[in-house]
Structure formats: structure tokens, C-alpha cells
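Blackboard transcription, Thursday session:
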Amino acid sequence: MTPRKSAKTTAAPVEREHGLHLLRSMVRIRRFEDKCAELYTATKIRGFLHLYDGEEAVAVGVLEALTADDAVVATYREHGHALVRGVAAGAILAEMYGRQEGCSRGRGGSMHLFDARTRFYGGNAIVGGGLPLAVGLALADTMQQKRRVTCCFFGDGAVAEGEFHESLNLAALWRLPVLFVCENNLYAMGTALRYAQAATDLAARAASYGMAAAAVDGMDVLAVEAAAHQAAAAIRAGEGPQFLECRTYRFRAHSMYDAELYRTRAEVEQWKQRCPIASFTERLRGAGLVSDGDLEAIEAEVAREINEAVAFAEAGSLEPVEDLTRFVYSERRLP
Amino acid sequence: MTPRKSAKTTAAPVEREHGLHLLRSMVRIRRFEDKCAELYTATKIRGFLHLYDGEEAVAVGVLEALTADDAVVATYREHGHALVRGVAAGAILAEMYGRQEGCSRGRGGSMHLFDARTRFYGGNAIVGGGLPLAVGLALADTMQQKRRVTCCFFGDGAVAEGEFHESLNLAALWRLPVLFVCENNLYAMGTALRYAQAATDLAARAASYGMAAAAVDGMDVLAVEAAAHQAAAAIRAGEGPQFLECRTYRFRAHSMYDAELYRTRAEVEQWKQRCPIASFTERLRGAGLVSDGDLEAIEAEVAREINEAVAFAEAGSLEPVEDLTRFVYSERRLP
Amino acid sequence: MTTTAGTMRKLTYREAVREAIREAMHKDERVFLMGEDVGRYGGCFAVSKGLLEEFGPERIRDTPLAESGFTGAGIGAALGGMRPIVEIMTGNFSLLAADQIINTAAVLLHMSGGQFNVPVVIRLATGGGRQVAAQHSRSLEGWFAHIPGIKVLAPATVNDARGMLWTALEDPDPVLIFENSNLYNMEGPLAVEAGAVDIDRARVRRDGRDITIISYGASLFKALEAAEILAKDGIEVEVVDLRTLRPLDEATFLASVARTHRALVVDEGWRSGSLAAEISARIMEGAFYDLDAPVARLCTAEVPLPYAKHLEEAALPQVAGIVALVKKMVGGHG
Amino acid sequence: MTTTAGTMRKLTYREAVREAIREAMHKDERVFLMGEDVGRYGGCFAVSKGLLEEFGPERIRDTPLAESGFTGAGIGAALGGMRPIVEIMTGNFSLLAADQIINTAAVLLHMSGGQFNVPVVIRLATGGGRQVAAQHSRSLEGWFAHIPGIKVLAPATVNDARGMLWTALEDPDPVLIFENSNLYNMEGPLAVEAGAVDIDRARVRRDGRDITIISYGASLFKALEAAEILAKDGIEVEVVDLRTLRPLDEATFLASVARTHRALVVDEGWRSGSLAAEISARIMEGAFYDLDAPVARLCTAEVPLPYAKHLEEAALPQVAGIVALVKKMVGGHG
Ligand SMILES: Cc1ncc(C[n+]2csc(CCOP(=O)(O)OP(=O)(O)O)c2C)c(N)n1
Ligand SMILES: Cc1ncc(C[n+]2csc(CCOP(=O)(O)OP(=O)(O)O)c2C)c(N)n1
Ligand SMILES: [Mg+2]
Ligand SMILES: [Mg+2]
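(Written on the board underneath:)
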């Protein structure tokens, strides 16, 4: 099986409402991440913090293809995914504040956002660790004859892990409804893909397991969305797992500790020229679909959402210390 | 990179001496394994015992391509490899008797044959566990500018393990001198390859890592030998790791506990028609290269070797119980 | 399986586990068994023999050799509403799945602030004594018992082999069940009406007044055998079967030690960092002033298990060693 | 790094480890460093920063994310005549390499009847307290100390961070070095002439007569701080730094307990099955009749470490908790 090569960039115009929706989603992520960086510097957020700037088109485009019934498994760089999936910004921020109003009660922090309502299964900080989990969720769906998709995000770095291999084989062997989304931002911390993989065409590698695989421009939200829709449709049609490599770039450091010794400023600047938000804005503008007023409205709306989220987090409360050992084991029996 | 497909069966005649040598090697393995089975029934050998009947052409053909300086990493089904590599039959059998004259002092048993003199690094009973080790041995050679080959044997079952994936990628990425030999006997215990792998062309899978890979008829000792020579030559020429899939079959049960519920007698019988020893004998005979006298001489020689091995094992002694906790840590400092 | 008088019947530990699986699969369609060679091969210890024919390959699911992958898939399937029984052939291979067990199963409930519990059951064969050498002979149950978020069971009797599995399946959290492979052929009585059993409490398997032996799994029977022998010398040994290694039911063994004033822990783990150390420490903390002598441990010698029979036997706790140690302990400060 | 008077200079724990690596690489061309982001990134805790420039990418070798693969490759390279230092970013990720460490490195010498030793050094960051939550905060050093065939070191001081690595590299067997990540920024004195140190013995870091606190790694400094505070109340605490967790030097702490008659073990592992349990059990066995009171343990609460600062602090052993516990122990039965 050869990979479906770069699903071609849709030149066709997008509906205005949908265009605004996609743009708004990406802006929400960007502004949210900016706020997190600021709050980290202000020591309101602690621990590890991994931001998603530059990669917004991936989460936004892919999650468009899911329904409320589907499941999402993400990594430690998952604020954007949680936001777009429908977890309240306030609950996410409160989590990073360590408040019990946080989406994981303050026990998880930035890397471990969870939300049962939206079937958001974390927030996994073990590289590659989410993949077997996604396989299992999809297995459960198959065995229960539920036609749902489990969407699993992971980085280029995860591809080297044994768990990647075992998971892709299992999913392909059992034809499970998993949408594997590789966020290939060219680096795993400071290790460039060429130092990590003998064969750097990740979609081709995935195809070797006998599953349909495509690579797409991860800086183009419409291209990502189209490819994700196609893949999700194939899964729902019973064609088994699908693999989507989204070629993207992270604009910020790996985490707040990273001195970025491994790449040049020039390289980062070059990629910033391809900012998914700026380029999509231009495209919408070029097609006469958005006005400056629209953009201002989006920014204002997002700013309000984020301000409210900050207020929510600030107003949050701490879980009583007496409850320390809760949630190690369940407090009730199961049905 | 696409796999070099089935290196074609050599129809060219083999030199008489070499033909006899290959035949003798295969017969040594077959008779040795038969003796082990007998001794197991007689409860002289205990624990797990995995025999190699039917697969002799693989070990014999591949090991022809190695020099004394090269290294071998094998599995728990490794009597044949050890024998052909030059570990004394007596030392192997004494090992299974649990005698201190055994090649691992009786501490390893059938699954853990080791021999420093022939650079035989085990005898690993964790499926896939030997692959990272082989990568490391080859890395050491590369860093020390030693032009040696590390030859790593493993089964079709190991291909599903994460360690397979991590090892192949590392070897390809660092262009290490590893000869990966997959003994594809179609089953991992009772699990047929098609129930274990979504994509059952293992050489093709290996090629996806960016290394040269070939599949060869593992029942044809000359074909295996030719392919191994070619692969070893490529490694010595600095072309990086090579992968050889040897398509073979095991005539006996997986181990002495196996009720063989998962395959039919008919299937086994069919494969026995392709016995590597019988077919090679016929070929030599057809080319007028061996006589009945030669065959009798080989059998007599092998019988003598095995009888002596049994006598050696029987005469072996037990390590004193007081030494129980030796070899947990080294007894001397290093140079 | 042979039926004996009244409402008891005799069956092997292996049959008990198989019955427990069968029964669970009949009762609850969410239950399925997954692991290497559980189906077509009939199970590496023949535990699941016949189940493929009864339930089909969807629910008796052979997996590739991919311990992390299929264990993680079991965890995910549990999250997704199923009740998987994952079989890892032996505890030794669980080292390949340690990431999924410890980094995922054990922490999801906590990291999600209580939202996602993981009702997976993982069965593993354990123990030495079969001459299968270092890589196949470890007893890692005590080691896994260090990890918060999982429960660790070690059924010793046929009744527990049958009953604990069902209770484990009803547990909302990940449960590891270590089955000592030396027990599979052991026959024992089971009530025809036998049902689920608790997994919260240790049990006194024999009453005695002179010393308490605390053990579990296959070692339990060595302790009981030693107690028989010692009884002939007038030494009355109380034997406690831990049953559940995490969380530990310390109340039961502390109460026993308070009665006998002496304790010996017999544990197939290596001595340093063994579960036996934890038991000793708990007695130190909870029954120090009851003790007439220091708590002793009889564990596996600190060596990877050798293949040679005489060395392996010397490495593992044995009845004779228990007898000798108890005599010394009771005689020394009687 | 700043030079102070005489033959002492001050440097951080991080610098000490870096110097130890540099020195080893200069002394012995068989030594190399391998792990995720040790090179181009500069090391995830900046330990190896600058070494790539000095030694090049062959010897400061960035690896893909493949813990089992590259740890196994380190083991193989050691077999092949090299002296690899494998860096696993944190102990948590060693769960992905547990198979290679335990099923291979720990048993090869034994299974081969003494033929093949494995001189690999594996460095791992460990410890909680940095609000990085459950999957990044474990202290697994005590847990690994259960495994025969490996040695486990836990350097606490700058001097040990420098000296133990070199000794570990000279050791013929696999050595795991757990570096508590909270220590990397700690400054401490080092003799200009400082060389290798032993890895066989525990050390008394403070003399005292009333009670012995046994600890290691970052907790050692909490113990020492508590001892300072307690001294003001006239309680003289002896503090023992274990340094090497496997094999344990019990002679040193037993001798101390024989003098003080009381002991507290402070250990960042979870309590059940902790190294602290082993220490308690050893004291039970080796100094029972010296004890005036039961040995106590202060460990991490049995919960995956929470992100929220106040909960994480409550979960970990702290100075105030040590002080309170010692006061109770010494006061209670003085
Ligand atoms: C198993 C494991 N090894 C190492 C790490 C440390 N680590 C965290 S993120 C990361 C890089 C991952 O890169 P990639 O998968 O490409 O994701 P990205 O951060 O680029 O989104 C590493 C090495 C980890 N969290 N888990
Ligand atoms: C990691 C691991 N999982 C499971 C086993 C149990 N086991 C031993 S051999 C074997 C089958 C291996 O099949 P394959 O790799 O094809 O080798 P073959 O026996 O056919 O030569 C299994 C499952 C093991 N030894 N190691
Ligand atoms: Mg990346
Ligand atoms: Mg096979």
C-alpha cells in the first residue's frame, strides 16, 4: 500500500460562516497559548508547559471531522485540542492554576487535561503512550458495534517508539476505527526528524502496516480539514484505521525550559511566514469573505473568553489537603 | 526502498567438499535435536526445550557468511546456531543437563547458551530482546572501527514487538553493521503470521526502515547461504544493516508442552516434503556429488559426536550449592 | 474435574481459573479475554483451552507479540466500556508492558481528577521452580505491589482462583492477578455453589499459638506443610494467607502476631525490597511491643534463578528451610 | 562554577555530573554518552550542555525516542567493549526500558555462567516536587533496588555526583545512577583534587546520639535541615546517607542504630514496598534488641503525585514532618 500523497490543497472557496468558524478556532488557540505563556512568566502556572503556536491548523482541521460521540486522545501539548473539542477555557486554565475547578481538579496540570463529557481522554505525557489506549478505545467501539472514531494525536518523535509500532500493527490487523494524526513539527524536543528516523517519510512508514496513509500541509487548515474528513469517512465506512501526517512547525520553544540551541532563528522566521492563521486570514480576505470588522469581532470575542477564563481560574479554590489520597482508587463500585 | 525479492535459488552446482560440509552441518543439528527430544522424555533435560528440526538450512546457510570475529545473537531456539558456530556439542548438552561443564555452567539451560570464545551472545528467551543488544554490539564495532558483523536471529513473532521497531530504526539510522535474520516459520507458538501481522511480507516491512531487505527460501541451504554472503558483503562494504527473511517451517511442536492445536498434520506433512536435508541430499546426489558411502560416513561421524556429547554431559558435575550467588556481580574489576 | 460427596467438588486451579473466565463471559458480554496464544494455541498454560470454540475469536482474542500494545489496548477497551481480561503469559514479560500498567492504568483515575477509571483485569503467571531459568522465573507480584493505583492479587487456593477473578472484574480499578504456575495442576475442593469472594482481606489458613507465618501464593502451601511437620514437634504455627498484596490487609496479620508474638514471612520475591520487607516493617510499626523476637524473612536468594535443579531449589524458599528457621526462632527465645 | 579559598571550589550538582562525564570521556575513549537530547538540545536538564561541541555527535549521541532500543544498544555496546553512559531522561521513562534493564542487563552475567559482564552506566533523573505531575514525578530508585544483578546509586552531594559516576564506569556490572532533579541547581564544595569515591559504603553525614535518620538523595538535605532544627531543642540526630541503594551497606546504619537506639527512614518512594521498608526490616533483623522504639518511616503518600502545589507538598516528605515525627519518637519513650 502506498501513501496517498499530500491531499491537494483545496483552492475552492470555503463558505463564509465556516471560514470564520475555522479562523476563530485557530485564534482562540493562539491567544490562549499567549496567555498561558504570560501566566507562566507570572508564575501563576507551574510545571511543564508546552505550547501549540504554529500548529493550530492541525487540531482545528482534524477535530472538524469528529462528532460529539467520537473520542480524542492527545499529548502533553493539548490545550488547543481540548479547547476546540469543547472543554471550557476556564476549566483548562483553572487546571493549570491547580484549582479544583480545573478539568482534572488540579491534579493533572497542563499536560493532563481530561474531560469525560467531550470524551477527551487526556493529556498523556509519555511520548507514544496514548497510542495503545486509542487502539483499545476503538476496539471497545468495534466490539460494541458502535460506529465511532477514536482520534489519536501524537508527534513525530513518537514514531520511533515501540508503542507506535505495536499500536499501528494492532489497529491495522484488527481494522479498528482509529484516526492516527501525526503532528510532524520536525522536532522532538531538540532532535530533528532526520536524526530520529532513518526513513523520514512518516506517511510511507505508516502505510507499510497496511493502512491508508496521507501527508498533508499542516499549515493549511482547509487541507487538513479535507484530509481529516476523508479519513474519518473511510473509517466510518468500515475501511479500518487511517493515518494522517500533518506537516507543521512549532513557533515557540518545546517547553518553557528550552534554550532552542538546535535550530536557527532564521528557520523559525521562515516558518512563521507560513503562519496558519495569517495565511488563512489572507485567503479569506482575498476571497472577500472576511472584513476587518470580522477580524476585530473575533479578537474581541476571544479576548473576552480568555479574560473570563482567567477570572474563573483566579477565583478557583484549592482542593482540601485532607483529600490528598482520593482518586487513587475509585470511590464507588461499577454498574 | 523496495525489498530485493527472493534471491533466486542457485541451480549452479556446489563444490563437493562444500556440499558435504553444508549437509554435515544440517545433519548435526537434526540428530542433535532428535537426541535432545529423547533426553527430554527421559527427563535428563528439563525446563523449556525448543527444537529446530526443519529450519536447519537457515542457521547453516547464514553462519557460513560469518567469520570468527563476527558476533551472533540468537533466541531460545538456538542449539543449532551454537553447534554450527563452533560451541562443542558436549558443552551444549552438559548445559541442558545443568552441569557446570555446560557452556553456561548449567545456569542457563537450553534457552541460554553462551560462549565467549565464538562470540555467541545467547540464547535470549525474551522474544525480540536480542535485537537491541545486536544493535549495541554493532555500535561498539563501528565506534571502535572494527569491521565486524553482528548477526541477529529472531522469529516472525518478534516482528510485532516494539523492540524490533526501535532496533531496526536505530540500525538503519546509524548505518550499523547488523545482519538481521528473521526465521519466519509462519508461527509464533500457536499464532499464525496472518493473525499477528497486518502486512505479512516481512522483508517489505523491514525495507520500510530504509534498509536493504530480501526474502529467501529458508528450506534451501544454498539459497540462504548465497543471500547471507551477499548481505554480509554489503555490510562489510559499509552499506549498513541488511535484513534477511528466511521462509521456513518448524517440523516439531513449539516446545515440549505444545499440543499443536493450531495447525493440521497435513500442513506439517506437506512442509516435511520440503525437508532441507532431504532435498539438499537429493540435489547433491542428482549432481553426482555424494554417494551412499558419504552419507553413511556423515551419519556415523555425527552419531559419534553426539554419543560423545552425551557421555560428556552424563559425566558432568554439579556446581557446589555454596556457589549459588556467584555471577550476580562480577568477581573482578575490569581492565 | 471430579465431583465429590455433597455440595463439594474437586477441580484443579487451572480449571478454576477457566471456569471463572467462562462464567464471567456468560454473565457479562462486556468481558473478553485477550493475550498471546489464548485462543488457537489453547493458552500457554492451557488455562483458556476450549474457550475459543465456545466464545469465538472476537472474545477469545489472540494477539501478536506486543505486550505494551495489547495491554494498553486492554486499558483503552476498559475505558471504552468493556471488561477486558488481559493475559500476559508470565510476569517476566510484563516488563515490556510496565509503561502501560504504571504510566497509564495506575494513574488515569487520579490524573483525570476521578473522571476515568480503568476496569481492566490483567492475569500473569508467576513463580520459579520449573527450571525455566532467569528470564522466565521471576516473582514480581510483590514488586508491582509498590505501585499506587493498581490492586495486586495472589490467589493460592482453588476457591480463590475461582472467586477472586470475578470480584476483580467487578472492581472499577485495574487489578493484576498473579497466578503461580506451580499451582495450575493442584487439585482442591470447591463448593458447587461457590461464588465471588472478597479481595480485601487476608485469611488465617491455620490456627496456632507459637508463631505466625505470613505468606501467599505457592509459598502458602510450603508454609502449611512446614506447619504440619512442626506440629509433630509441638510447635503450633498460625498461617496467614495474604491473598491481596495491594492494598495490604495488615489488620489480620497484626492481630495474629499479637497472639503469637513471633512472625516469619515467606515470600518468593528476592529478599531486598521484597513484599516480605513491607510486612516486616508493618509489624515493626504496628506490633513492635507484641514481639518476643525479631520478625524473620525467608525469601528467594538474591540471584537470577539458575536453570540447574539443585541450584534453583537452593535459591527458593523450601519447606525444610521454613521448619529449621521456625525451630530456631521458637526454640531460641521460647 | 566559582573557586573558593584553598583547594576547594564551589560548583553545582549539574556541573559536577558534567565534569564527571567530561573527565571520563577524556580519560577513556571507550566512554560515550547516549540518550534523548543529550547533544543538540544540550540535555533535558542541561547536564550535557557543551559536550557535543567538545566531543562531537559520535560520542555525545542523540537518540530517537526509543528507550528500550537505545538502552539495549547501550547494554550491547558495553558487551562489545565500550563504556556507555546511557541517559534516560527520567526514571519514569525507564519503564519503557524495564525489559532491557531487568531481562537483559541484570541477568547476562549470570545466565552466561560468568562469561559476559555488562559495564553500562545508566543515568536517570528522579524525584517529585517540581509540579510536573504523576507521569513525571516518580522516585523509582528504591524499586529498582529490588533487582539482583544491577547496582543502584543515589548521589546526594556534589562530591558524590562527581565521584560516583567515575567509580560506576569502572564497575564491571550495570549501574543505575538516580540523580534527583531538585539537586541539579544545588551548589556545594568540591576539592580541586577530588577523584573517584567508593560506591560500597553509606556515610554518616551528621553525628548524633538520640536517633538515626536514614535517607538518601534529595531527602538527605531535608533530614539534615530537620536535624539542625531539632538540635535547637536539644535533640541530637545522627544522619546516615545511604548513597548506594543496591547493594545496601547495612553495617553502617546498623552501627548507628546500635548507638542511638532509634531510627527513622526518610524516603521519597511510596511507603508500601519502599526501600524504607527494607531498611526497617534490616534493622528488625540486625538491631532489634538495640531498639528503644519501633523504626518509623516517612515516605511519599500513596498517591500518584498531583500537580497542584499544595497537594504535591503534602504528599512528599517535608522538613516539618520529619521534625514532628522525631519529636514524637524521642519524646514518647525518651
Ligand atoms: C517516553 C518518553 N520519553 C521521553 C519523554 C520526554 N519528552 C517529552 S516531549 C518529548 C519530545 C516529543 O516530540 P514529539 O513527539 O515530536 O512531540 P512534540 O513535542 O514535537 O509535539 C520528549 C523527548 C517523554 N515525555 N516520554
Ligand atoms: C516478550 C515475550 N513474550 C512472550 C514470550 C513467550 N513466547 C516464547 S516463544 C514465543 C513465540 C515466538 O515466536 P517466533 O518469534 O516466531 O519464534 P519461533 O518460536 O517460531 O522460533 C512466545 C510467545 C516470550 N518468551 N517473550
Ligand atoms: Mg515533534
Ligand atoms: Mg516463528
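Lecturer's comment: Chain C has two domains: 2-191, 203-330.
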